[in-house]
Amino acid sequence: MSKTANLTNRKTLHIEWGDCDPAQIVHYPRYLAYFDACTTALFKKAGLSKRQMLETYRIVGIPLVDLRASFKAPSRFSDTVVVESEITEWGRSSFCVRHRLFNRNVLSVECFETRVWAALSATDRETIESKPVPPEVIGMFSVDTNHSPARQRPRRNKLA
Amino acid sequence: MSKTANLTNRKTLHIEWGDCDPAQIVHYPRYLAYFDACTTALFKKAGLSKRQMLETYRIVGIPLVDLRASFKAPSRFSDTVVVESEITEWGRSSFCVRHRLFNRNVLSVECFETRVWAALSATDRETIESKPVPPEVIGMFSVDTNHSPARQRPRRNKLA
Amino acid sequence: MSKTANLTNRKTLHIEWGDCDPAQIVHYPRYLAYFDACTTALFKKAGLSKRQMLETYRIVGIPLVDLRASFKAPSRFSDTVVVESEITEWGRSSFCVRHRLFNRNVLSVECFETRVWAALSATDRETIESKPVPPEVIGMFSVDTNHSPARQRPRRNKLA
Amino acid sequence: MSKTANLTNRKTLHIEWGDCDPAQIVHYPRYLAYFDACTTALFKKAGLSKRQMLETYRIVGIPLVDLRASFKAPSRFSDTVVVESEITEWGRSSFCVRHRLFNRNVLSVECFETRVWAALSATDRETIESKPVPPEVIGMFSVDTNHSPARQRPRRNKLA
Fold it and tell me: Is residue B154 over pLDDT 60?
């Protein structure tokens, strides 16, 4: 019997001086830029480099439609933090990504992004519309837990 | 009999090339930077310039603790948009700001920020803690609707 | 006898909290983002909205090839500054833009951008190459100084 | 006889979607944010974490006074680039940092920053003034080339 879990990516970030505001803490829009990069890294770990993914599936991106975030503790420049990211839910043409940012092992920011698989409209090149997520893409985010992640994805780990 | 309403600020923004991503639409963390500036502008309309406010009330800022946003329609570089901002709720040491971004009169992004009135801890200068919002500050966001806003705040309108 | 001068744009900017770093002054990459927006505004004053310009002339942008800036005095959040921008030199496919940022009438930042008129290569859509600037575009940046600017460009002034 | 060379740091960067503009290439102010982070990383390799450095030497930062950059080739999202950074010159209270960004081993951007060692004025806390760079700080950027870097700085390499 086979069990599956969600593919998870862990990304280590160095909080930069330029990401912080005069209160000496991360200016919150920068967290959202971090999380956008973490979603990209999660797809890369699944085998989908963003540039290649856009070409292969003829999409323009995976833009946000909904965002929720809670900021529990501030981080400061020179801090090193770790963001754990996974896709928690797949809809027909949308999906939800959860990011949890840990600073010295304390959960400091939690963020839920709802994104859509988006392409240019065939009839109006100015319009972006959502498309069904290809099943093969969804399949790339399932981890067969009967095997250790290390054996399963030896070449992908270095990309994350 | 006196009626009050929430002070509202309208800020016109030009969507810049550098705010847009390779899909040619606003990269969503930039919306949050816009809204942060809109909250600053709302306080300025109430008579509280950010730098002065920090000095007067000895706070380090009004950082976010919670964020919700929904992105209903994309905006593109060279678009001109209007953001309407108001404080919808006051707690003891926190408050909620609602921003609604309109592009050609269509509601395109809606955002709810929960912020706290924050000062450095008296005992640990590395720690930021929330403080009760001064009642006089809350009072500055009430508009007496028996009078026209134009008569009431002649010198403030030019700041917004 | 007719004399010409360079079209100049003046853009007023409010220094935002999120543009400043823990030293409480503008984080310098943000100045370059301001100046990019000021170049866009200068072209708009000349009658060339960026989106329209890209469509009309089938270019992908006017990217930088060279940058020089000197930072003479810092600016802080809540400051209001004015940036004066003009094109100081036209080459065959490149041009130089000068920006001068004034804070309380003191020249605080001076920046020289060298940009190219850039299109996708006809043979390789991954390659961007410079193209000659159309003479009509260059002509739009000359101001006939025998006439007052106010009479000459009544509808453009409001755009800047 | 002992020979010295400049300490050099190499930082690998992943070009993010959000760093690119509608022309699908890095928006140039983002390069300057990269280089600011690279200067921080160079100091960290020398043993000076930014937060600690500010506390130890009671400075507010190392702000830019002059900037020169040339952009020779564009980079795109999903590219991985390497930035080599070193301090090429020390003045009394200023120093010059050179950054060279390589994309697939091709020099794509070169940048020269002139920065100052800056502290708050003792008499006016609103004024930032330059201070002499401590000789011990300058010494930390000299590499004795008679010894292999591996032997000389075993604990620092992991920080860079």
Answer: no
Nearest CA in chain C to A30: C18
Q: Which residue of A has its CA nearest to D37?
A: A16
Q: What is the pLDDT of residue A34?
A: 98
CA atoms of C129 and C110, how far apart (whole Å): 28
Which residues neighbour A69 within 8 Å (Cβ) at sequence distance 6 or greater? A28, A31, A32, A109, A110, A111, A112, B66, B67
- What is the C-alpha separation between B107 and B73, in angstroms, rounded? 8
Give the pair of three-digit tokens for residue C103: 């804070």
Q: Tell me, what's the ipTM?
A: 0.87
Quote the pLDDT of residue C126. 81
Is A21 assigned a catalytic role? yes
d(CA C109, CA C103): 9
Give contacts of A23 with chain B, Cβ < 8 Å: 60-61, 63, 118, 128
Do B20 and D22 count as a contact with CB atoms less than 8 A apart? Answer: yes
Residue A61's alpha-carbon distances to A65, B16, C84, in angstroms, are 12, 20, 37
Q: Which residues of B touch D17 (CB under 8 A)?
A: 21-22, 27
B99-108, B117-126, C48-57, D64-73: the lowest-pLDDT one: B117-126
Nearest to C26 by CA among C15, C37, C34, C41: C15
Residue A7 in contact with residue A45, Cβ under 8 Å? yes
CA distance A44 to A53: 9
pLDDT at C4: 73
Average pLDDT, chain C: 90
Short-list B20, B14, B104, B19, CA closest to C45: B14
Structure tokens at C65: 């090839």
Interchain contact B77–C (C-beta under 8 A): yes
Whole-angstrom Cα Rg for chain C = 17
In chain D, residues with a C-beta closer than 8 Å to the C-beta of B27 are: 17-18
- B29·A22 Cβ contact <8 A: no
The residue among B76, B64, B60 whose CA lies nearest residue B111 is B64
Q: Is B60 on the interface with A (CB under 8 A)?
A: yes
> How do the pLDDT tens digits run along chain A, 160 residues long?
556 789 999 999 999 999 999 999 999 999 999 999 999 999 999 999 999 999 999 999 999 999 999 999 999 999 999 999 999 999 999 999 999 999 999 999 999 999 999 999 888 888 899 999 999 999 999 987 765 444 444 333 332 2
Interface contact flag, D66 C69, Cβ < 8 Å:
yes
pLDDT of C1 higher than 70: no
**Which residues lie closer than 8 Å to A64 by C-beta, 6 or more apart?**
A113, A114, A115, B28, B71
Q: How far apart are CA D35 and CA D101, in angstroms?
A: 9
Residues in chain D, how many?
A: 160
Residue ranges of E strands in chain C: 4-6, 8-14, 64-71, 80-90, 94-103, 106-116, 118-120, 128-130, 142-144
Q: At what angle do helices A50-57 and A28-45 cross, to 10 degrees?
A: 70
Tens of pLDDT, residues D92-139 = 999 999 999 999 999 999 999 999 999 998 888 888 999 999 999 999
